[in-house]
Every structure is written in structure tokens, then in C-alpha cells.
Design brief:
CATH architecture: Alpha-Beta Barrel
Distance between the termini: 23 Å
CATH superfamily: Aldolase class I
Helix content: 25-40%
Shape: globular
Structural class: alpha/beta
Bound molecules: S-adenosylmethionine
Order of helices and strands: EHEHEHEHHEHEHHEEEEEEHH
Strand content: 15-25%
Radius of gyration: 19 Å
Largest sheet: 12 strands, mixed
Length: 316
């Protein structure tokens, strides 16, 4: 459906939990107990209402979606909904080896894996867990079972892991995996965000062999990443720049939080609770429509939105 600013909203990000098995320094998250998560059935009902309003692509995220024991049930229910043409998942990869095959069977096709470093010790210091090898095993398993595309999303932070750009880029050189750098957003108490953000120009200057690639977005699947390629590379390098180059006018997404509230924009406090409408399909659909119409023209990160809204709660 078209929102109040003429954008077609067709992409729903579903945060299935606030809980996470990692505690990344920049995410602003401490692992939380949560007892008001939507059930798989409630999630299905809400996504069905979104599908009636034109949503055709869904991404499961969190928190860490793979800490939900019923994640494959959730995926299967969503993938069977009329109108849902694509189901993807974003994960930290720790439990991916265990789940990749079942997720594929449940209808998930694409997987984004968050990985900010290729160094075991730095991985431990960023995430609080010595689990780099598990992420690699998860990536291997995704390839083995045929999940595609597989993408790695990395957040570089000045003075912390900026030295990892080269080894992360080399993953795209060697494997059919796109590696995308996401600018640090001001969600945690990491200090002065502006000083910590590594912008795409800075990375591109260091790696001049990266040249703009054909951008593959379609109206169905608009990409927020700008892609580059290197000669002989099997995958591409992408940049997602919510801070230095807002893409709000192109934004086609809306977010469902794990407690049944809709977050209309990552950078806004506006939420609409859908739980009261769960027992009435037509009221639920109306509430979803209203939520989509509340999507603001643009995010407010640059106006100091931040610290209290860790991405673990919102679903990155
Ligand atoms: N647990 C899953 C994962 O790790 O991919 C999904 C949730 S996580 C919040 C989603 C993405 O948000 C991760 O790629 C993470 O790096 C990113 N993220 C978290 N905090 C961020 C921040 N302050 N700025 C930019 N990206 C952030």
C-alpha cells in the first residue's frame, strides 16, 4: 500500500524476540528476559493482515531470532501466507549451523549474517562471546543447504574494528557472499557517534580497486545498499549509509516488534499496538493500515535520537 508520502510499503521486518545470545558493545543491549513475545500463531495473524495491505517481503530479525525455539514454525507459517513472496532472516550466526537446513525447509530463502570482525579475540571483545568459529560454521552450512543470497553485514567502529575492513572484503573476493558495511547508528552509549562512524568514502579510498557495480534493485526488492565490485570477486561490497546519505524517500519498510507493536520508522518513537485487535481480522487490518499511514517522512537520527533505543529491541 502507498503511505502518506507516496512510498509503496511492501517490506515488513518482524522482530521475533528482544532476547539475544550476544551483547555487542554498540547495540546498546543487555540480554533481557522477555515474557510478552507474540506466539507463532499471533505473529502469523499479524503478518497476514500486513499481507492484505500489500506486504510481500518479510525479514525475521530480533534480538536474535534463532534463540526462539519455534523459529522454524514461525517461518513456515509466514511463508505459507498468500502474498508473501520472499522470507529472509537476519542473524548473528551463532546457532545457524543448527538451524540452516530447517529454515530452508520452512521457506526461508535469504540470510543476512552480522559479522564485524574476522579476528577471534576482537569478536569476543565486541560480542562478549568466543564464537567466531560458530559463525563461520553457520555460513558454511547456509552454502551447503543452498540458502541464497547469503550476505554479511558489518558495522565498523573507529578504533575498534576498522582494521578488519580488508579481511571482511576478502570474504567477498573468495566466496559468493556480498559483504555490506553499515554505518554505525547512534543507538548505544558509545560516546560521540560522529567520531566513531566510518563512512563509505573512507573505506573506498583505502580500496581503490572497488568500482561501482550495477545496482540490482527492482521495485519489488529495492536495495538500500550501494554496491561495488572488485575484479575477480565472487561477491560484491555494499554500503548502507543511514547517517551520511538518508534513504528515507525510498524507504519501503515497516517493523513489527516482538510484543505486537508496530514501529513505523527505525528513527522515530511512534509505535502502534496491534495486540488489542488480534481477535478481529478486519479491525487488525484497519489498525495495520493506520500504522502504515503514520510512517513519517524521514528519520531523526541526526537530531539526537538514540541511546535508549537499542537495536535489540527494534530489530535491526
Ligand atoms: N541478532 C541479529 C543479528 O545480529 O543480525 C539481528 C538483530 S541485530 C540488532 C541486526 C543488525 O543491527 C546487526 O547487523 C547489527 O550489527 C546491527 N546494529 C546493531 N546496533 C547497531 C548500530 N548502533 N548501528 C548500526 N547497526 C547496528
Amino acid at each position: 500500500m502507498i503511505d502518506s508520502y507516496g512510498r509503496e510499503i511492501n517490506y515488513l521486518r518482524v522482530s521475533v524476540t528482544k532476547r539475544c545470545n550476544l551483547s555487542c558493545t554498540y547495540c546498546g543491549a543487555q540480554s533481557e528476559k522477555e515474557n510478552n513475545e507474540l506466539t507463532a500463531e499471533e505473529t502469523e495473524k499479524i503478518v497476514r493482515a500486513f499481507a492484505l495491505c500489500g506486504i510481500n517481503k518479510v525479514r525475521l530479525t530480533g534480538g536474535e531470532p534463532l534463540v526462539r525455539r519455534d523459529i522454524c514454525d514461525i517461518a513456515e507459517r509466514i511463508s505459507r501466507i498468500d502474498g508473501i513472496r520472499k522470507l529472509a532472516l537476519t542473524t548473528n550466526g551463532i546457532r545457524l549451523k543448527e538451524y540452516a537446513g530447517s529454515l530452508k525447509k520452512a521457506g526461508v530463502t535469504a540470510v543476512n549474517i552480522s559479522l564485524d570482525t574476522t579476528d577471534r579475540e576482537r569478536f569476543r571483545s565486541i560480542t562478549g562471546y568466543d564464537g567466531l568459529h560458530k559463525v563461520y560454521e553457520g555460513i558454511d552450512e547456509c552454502e551447503r543447504v543452498g540458502l541464497s543470497p547469503i550476505r554479511i553485514n558489518a558495522v565498523l567502529i573507529r578504533g575498534q574494528n576498522d582494521g578488519d575492513a580488508e579481511s571482511l572484503i576478502s570474504i567477498a573476493r573468495d566466496r559468493k557472499i556480498d559483504v555490506r558495511f553499515i554505518e554505525l547508528m547512534p543507538f548505544s552509549n558509545e560516546g560521540d557517534n560522529a567520531k566513531l562512524v566510518i563512512k563509505s568514502d573512507e573505506i573506498l579510498e583505502k580500496f581503490p580497486f572497488l568500482k561501482p557495480a550495477a545496482q540490482k534493485g527492482t521495485p519489488f526488492e529495492k536495495s538500500v545498499a550501494r554496491y561495488y565490485e572488485g575484479e575477480g570477486f565472487k561477491g560484491r561490497i555494499g554500503f548502507i549509509t543511514p547517517i551520511s546519505d538518508k534513504f528515507c524517500s525510498e524507504c519501503n519498510r515497516i517493523r513489527l516488534l516482538s510484543d505486537g507493536k508496530v514501529k513505523v520508522c527505525l528513527g522515530s518513537d511512534e509505535v502502534i499496538d496491534l495486540k488489542p485487535y488480534l481477535d478481529d481480522e478486519s479491525e487488525l487490518e484497519k489498525a495495520v493500515k493506520k500504522a502504515i499511514l503514520k510512517k513519517p517522512m524521514e528519520h531523526k537520527f541526526s537530531c539526537g535520537y538514540g541511546a535508549s533505543h537499542g537495536l535489540n529491541k527494534i530489530g535491526g
